[in-house]
């Protein structure tokens, strides 16, 4: 009986892993852009409006899964140590155009890949791979976070 349960668990796990790996860049961005609803709530602590995302079922299935995604490079701070992957280039950023927080992903880069990110320039189009984290409560971070990020390739 134990072996059957273990085997069933392994089959289910591999199905979810394959499902996440077979997602194309367009499908990933489609889910990130459209399978979330963001409303803004007032915070006394921060004295301002803060985003409160509600993630859809399909997007929740990707929580903790390793995904590959392509986008534009945006350094987020003056030290050049905080990085963001954006659906749009800098001149069409979420803040300027009102496209929304769902168009950017915070990147937590693995130490062995950090030098590659330091060499990138704003708006370089590139591909990364990492574990998706959906964030609805920590306002010090973006709503999408990729952990254990690896640089895959520079596209242009």
Relevant terms:
5 helices; globular; 37% strand; OB fold (Dihydrolipoamide Acetyltransferase, E2P); alpha+beta; two-stranded antiparallel sheet; 156 residues; 5-stranded mixed beta barrel
Overview of the molecule:
This protein has 156 residues and is an alpha+beta fold. It has one domain (24-154): OB fold (Dihydrolipoamide Acetyltransferase, E2P) (Beta Barrel). The chain has five helices and seven strands. The strands form two sheets. It has a five-stranded mixed β-barrel. The protein has a two-stranded antiparallel sheet with strand order 1-2. The longest helix has 20 residues, at 2-21. The protein starts with a helix and ends with a strand. Mean pLDDT is 84; it is low at 4-19.
Strand content: 35-45%
Compute the separation of the termini in Å: 53 Å
Average of per-residue pLDDT values = 84
CATH superfamily: Nucleic acid-binding proteins
Annotated CATH topology = OB fold (Dihydrolipoamide Acetyltransferase, E2P)
- How many helices does DSSP assign? 5
Can you summarize the main beta sheet? Answer: 5 strands, mixed, barrel
Taken from the alpha-carbon principal axes, the silhouette is globular
User: Level of helix content?
Assistant: 25-40%
Based on DSSP secondary structure assignment, what is the total number of beta strands?
Answer: 7
Order of helices and strands: HHEEHEEHEHEE
What Rg, in angstroms, do the CA atoms define? 17 Å
- Tell me, what is the CATH class? Mainly Beta
Estimate nothing, just give the exact number of structural domains: 1
Q: Give the uncertain stretches in residue-range form.
A: 4-19
- Any idea what the CATH architecture is? Beta Barrel
Structural class: alpha+beta
């Amino acid at each position: 009986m134990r072996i059957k349960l273990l085997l069933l668990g392994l089959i289910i796990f591999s199905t979810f892993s394959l499902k996440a790996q077979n997602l194309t860049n367009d499908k990933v961005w489609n889910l990130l852009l459209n399978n979330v609803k963001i409303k803004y709530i007032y915070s006394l602590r921060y004295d301002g409006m803060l985003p409160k995302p509600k993630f859809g079922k399909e997007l929740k299935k990707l929580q903790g899964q390793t995904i590959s995604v392509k986008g534009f490079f945006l350094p987020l701070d003056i030290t050049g140590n905080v990085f963001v992957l954006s659906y749009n280039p800098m001149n069409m950023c979420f803040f300027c155009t009102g496209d929304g927080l769902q168009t950017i992903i915070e990147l937590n880069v693995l130490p062995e890949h950090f030098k590659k990110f330091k060499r990138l320039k704003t708006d370089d189009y590139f591909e990364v791979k990492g574990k998706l984290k959906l964030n609805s409560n920590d306002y010090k971070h973006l709503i999408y976070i990729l952990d254990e990020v690896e640089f895959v390739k520079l596209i242009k």
